[in-house]
Amino acid sequence: MLNSAHAAPCFDNPQRAYDYLLAQENAKIQARDEATVNINRASEGELVSLNGIGSSKAQAIILYRDMFGEFKTVDELAKVKGIGAKTIEKNRRRLSVQD
């Protein structure tokens, strides 16, 4: 017995299949880009999902919080070398300091 909730739909042509897969991927990207990131708990992978944050800046955020403790406000993120007010503003709606 198949569980139809996880079965991929059948398509009558390749273009419809491609459009479906593209829509699925776009939905995943949008969900990831709208997810809130707790900067006191986030992993490197979660931090790099933020706009303007690459691997090295994500590692710097983690190192900073390990050395100085949790961020009390989102604006304290500017204390991390390489992170400025513009980066914080671009991501403000996605940033949090508590669960």
Topology, element by element:
Elements: H1 14-34, E1 37-38, H2 44-47, H3 55-68, H4 85-91, E2 95-96
Parallel strand pairs: 1-2
* Major sheet size, sense and barrel closure: 2 strands, parallel
User: How do the strands line up in the largest sheet?
Assistant: 1-2
Cα radius of gyration in angstroms:
19 Å
Q: Spans of 5+ residues with little confidence (pLDDT < 50)? A: none
Question: Helicity level, as a percent range?
Answer: 40-55%
First-last Cα distance: 40 Å
Structural class, by secondary structure, is: mainly alpha
User: In percent, how much strand structure appears in the residues?
Assistant: under 5%
Mean pLDDT: 88
Written description of the protein model:
The chain is mainly alpha-helical. The protein contains 4 helices and 2 strands, in the order H-E-H-H-H-E. It has a two-stranded parallel sheet with strand order 1-2. The protein is elongated and about 60 Å long.
